[in-house]
Amino acid sequence: MKNSFQSLVESRIEAMPEGAVFVLSDFTDIAEAKTVSKLLTRLLPGHGIEKLRRGLFWKPDREHGTPDLNDVAAALARGNCWTSVPSGDTAKHIVGLDKTSPSVWTYITEGTNRLYRFGDAVISFRHASERFFRSMSDKTALLVQVVKAYGPDKITEDIRGYLRSYFMSNEYPGLIEESKNTTGWIYEAIRSIFGQD
Hints:
Elements (H helix, E strand, L loop, with lengths): L3 H12 L5 E3 L9 H11 L6 E4 L2 E3 L10 H11 L4 E3 L1 H8 L8 E6 L4 E5 L2 E7 L2 H5 L3 H13 L6 H10 L5 H7 L5 H10 L4
Parallel strand pairs: 5-7
Antiparallel strand pairs: 1-3, 2-3, 4-5, 6-7
């Protein structure tokens, strides 16, 4: 007979979309981590979930066949109680400006430097100041990292146009306002992207 914890965990997993990546802390409002770990281990055979590594699980996606590494990184960050933002080529790939999947998926975080290997790919977390994460939304932080990845002289009009279409027009004022405390050239580049030269 199922206990109430197991039923609640099963219901939450069933409600997740295919391809979802999750960690123990995603269920700690239901039961403590040790109990959740035992329940998930019990559910592994025949319940449509797979264990990626200790404490990290995946609801397989029939269409893609492998976990999305950005979702894996987000789950790892949640499991470590970190905020994280894609950076470098990873940031460009996430917004669609670089179609090539990076071999190293790089993220900045207020947590510690850490590497995780998944097959041929690597997820790299690099420490950054907590102040960066407190001063802006996830969308602004991602935009800042995209601009930083290109540098001050390589943001073309095509890139500006793409970023204008990637973000909604009602988001422009907030993106500009929240980027005020970044490096000067990044702030000016963001103002230029959204037509405030």
